[in-house]
Design brief:
Bound molecules: fe (ii) ion
Strand content: 25-35%
Shape: globular
Number of helices: 8
Radius of gyration: 21 Å
CATH superfamily of the largest domain: Metallo-dependent phosphatases
Number of strands: 25
Largest sheet: 7 strands, mixed
CATH architecture of the largest domain: 4-Layer Sandwich
Oligomer: single chain
CATH class of the largest domain: Alpha Beta
Helix content: 10-25%
């Protein structure tokens, strides 16, 4: 991470560089992001790839493509927009999962359409009020990026709306109606508000594919299982009542295929929750994972709800939390299924308008949000090889310790 100066007088022509980091890696790409860089031209180089940018002293992002897989690379930034002679970052590209690529699925979550504020005290707002509020702009940009990346399906992991109000559901329908791929929705706690149109009825009312219990979709090499963890009137989530249906869905899944289980509430890895919001309690989460891990060996469970990024493992199952589209760092996630494994990638939404907002929302929680939400790079981007034990492998009774990569 590069930390130089954050604030600069407009009259000061010297370039700045602040929080220039490798946010995301795939097997052949790396996404570099910054809170401030420039102004001036910048050349980014890694391996045989060169990207030329025009920076303006504000936030930005660059995607470096055509990189060699599974290599530790030096990324250099140089030019008039870089203070000093150059900036050097290290990036390790992922190893691709074994075998041929079969399908790509993308997820987004925690859109909170209809909200206008962020922060524990709701003090981060847009001034002046824009024609299109930031949740809608963020969701539209995330959906466009996921389609461009090559997703065959998009799963929306809850908190589509902020208060389940009819106009919020209509906004979501408008954003997704013309997309060239299926969009599946799992409700979040914000979508089951008694004051709005509950997600259990919104599917029919607004013509949306919303999972009210458990749904499965088969794609090449993949069984996608969507689970509604919400309980009307409660903010926290539960899984017990859906476990039998999930086990049924696993029983006739191809044992050689991958399984992606998508839920809204995080499965809490610790006895004491990391912090608000509460998810599925640890004991219930472990019961679910032990049953799932005993039934299928190639399972990744992913949630939203916390707006943070974490990864852990239990009973041979890998579990992730992925952040929101609309607050720092402002992301979408992709899952690439191969014959012998699956990889997850999380990328920041990289348009300037969105980065301006998601950089501002770093300041939530008395300035801690920018440190808490992104998590570690290896919690966001990683490869699972079905022929190697996953973190926490050992089965329900294997007694292996919980391997935890959260922080
Ligand atoms: Fe949320
Ligand atoms: Fe939530």
């Amino acid at each position: 991470m590069i930390r130089l100066r954050r604030d600069r007088s407009p009259a000061d022509p010297r370039p700045v560089a602040h929080r220039v980091v490798v946010f995301s890696v795939e097997d052949t790409t790396a996404q570099i992001t910054w809170s401030a860089l420039g102004p001036g031209p910048v050349r980014v180089r890694a391996a045989d790839t060169t990207v030329d940018l025009q920076t303006d002293g504000g936030p930005g992002a660059a995607l470096i493509k055509d990189l060699p897989p599974n290599r530790l690379l030096t990324v250099t930034l140089e030019g008039e927009g870089v203070p000093g002679t150059q900036i050097e970052l290290k990036a390790r590209t992922l190893a691709p999962p074994p075998g041929a690529e079969l399908v790509r699925v993308a997820t987004i979550s925690d859109l909170h359409l209809g909200s206008r504020r962020f922060g524990y005290f709701g003090t981060i707002v847009e001034h002046p009020i824009p024609a299109i509020d930031h949740p809608e702009r963020c969701a539209a940009a995330a959906l466009a990026a996921a389609v461009d990346w090559g997703a065959a399906d998009i799963v929306v992991k809850g908190d589509v709306t902020d208060r389940a109000r009819p106009h919020e559901w209509r906004t979501f329908r408008r954003l997704t109606a013309d997309l060239p791929l299926p969009v599946h929705v799992i409700p979040g706690n914000h979508d089951v508000r008694a004051t709005g149109v509950d997600a259990r009825h919104a599917g029919r009312a607004f013509g949306l594919d919303i999972t009210t219990d458990v749904a499965t979709h088969d794609r090449p090499g993949l069984r996608l299982i969507l689970v509604n963890t919400t309980v009307p009137g409660l903010d926290r989530g539960h899984l017990d009542e859906h476990t039998p249906a999930v086990l049924d869905a696993l029983a006739d899944a191809d044992p050689a295929a991958g399984v992606l289980i998508a839920v809204h509430h995080q499965l809490q890895p610790h006895r004491v929750a990391e912090g608000w919001p509460w998810g599925v309690p640890r004991a219930e989460a472990r019961r679910f994972l032990e049953a799932v891990g005993a039934r299928h060996r190639h399972v990744l469970v992913t949630s939203g709800h916390t707006h943070r990024h974490r990864r852990w493992g239990h009973a041979g199952v890998t579990i992730t939390q992925v952040g929101s589209t609309k607050d720092h760092p402002g992301v979408w996630a992709g899952y690439v299924v191969h014959e012998g494994g699956m990889r997850q990638v999380v990328r920041r939404i990289d348009t300037r308008d969105i980065l301006d907002w998601t950089e501002r929302t770093r300041d939530a929680a008395l300035g801690l949000w920018g440190h808490v939400a992104p998590g570690r790079l290896d919690a966001r981007c990683f490869t699972l090889d079905w022929h190697r034990p996953q973190p926490g492998a050992g089965g329900a009774s294997g007694g292996s310790p919980l391997q935890d990569t959260t922080r």
